[in-house]
Amino acid sequence: MKIKFAIPKGSLEVSTLELLKKSWTKVNHRHRTYRVFLDDPEIEIKMLRPQEIPLLISEGLYDIGITGKDWIEETKANVRTMLDLEYGKIKLVVAIPRNNQLKSLDDMINNYFNQNKILRISSEYLTATAKFIKKSMSYQKNYGSEDPLIITPWIHFGKNKNVQIHLSFGATEAKPPDDVDIIVDVTETGTTMEKNGLKIIHTILESSAHVIVNKQSLSDNLKYEKISDMLTLMKGAVNSNKYLHIYLNIHKKNLGKLLDKLPSLKKPTICNLSEQDWYSVNTIIPKDDLHKLIPIIRKVAQGLVIHEPKQILELE
Fold first, then answer.
1. Cα-flanking dihedrals φ and ψ of residue 9, to 5°?
2. What CA–CA distance (Å, rounded) separates 250 from 270?
3. pLDDT tens per residue across span 134-147
4. Which end is more exposed in the chain, N or C (fewer Cβ atoms within 10 Å of the end residue's Cβ)?
5. What pTM was estimated for this model as a whole?
6. pLDDT per residue over 97-128, tens digit each?
């Protein structure tokens, strides 16, 4: 049995390879190639464009994959979303030229309708853009339920020629105001849009990398078990980013003071040292709590050692 695993090439590639290296003990990938090899012969990995991954998994060509939530939403793929990997965080936004006095999509639609002008929008996200536009009150008032005209080099569909969504092949932020009036694109910080003279007027959705699975694969007992193991390993790698493993030595008289303040996944491990009345304390703490603990530890303990764990597995 082989589990076919699709991972994204492009902007999510580096972070995905780092996740694999935390999740498995050996990862072999040559630069500019599309195959990745793990120390697990039951997993077969191929790199693909993240846009393609949801539909390929939905169609059963792959059992499991990693892609952005934005492309899961855009493709409307019939897959099971299993795990938020918490990297590749972006926003899908609506932006217009900064010198435009209008402040919202409703304003833009009303303005262009009143002037009998065609409103042109550029995006890679045709489905999400059309859905968001059709929810606009001004669109419903002026055009009813009619679909915007979606224009690609291969096909045109939708009847409303007064609101057009043009497929973008990249550099979307460079298109206004000469080629289009509005863009719908992804951004991490908004800096690139600002540099290109744009202002963000709406956020459509927030996205990050997710693990998705083919529903038929989950109904196969053997594949289900293997996929569950894979999810455990990847979730362990995600959790490792949130915790620290700490060790310290403490005298018996101060032990109670420390334990009153010390968080842990369950309970700290406490061991006797060779010197009488001294103990070693070993525990896992939330990374965000370290700065709160330092003032306490500094006063009552000695020899603090901090490790960043590779994985923290939530085993049944």
1. -95, 150
2. 10
3. 999 999 999 999 99
4. C
5. 0.90
6. 999 999 999 999 999 999 999 999 999 999 99
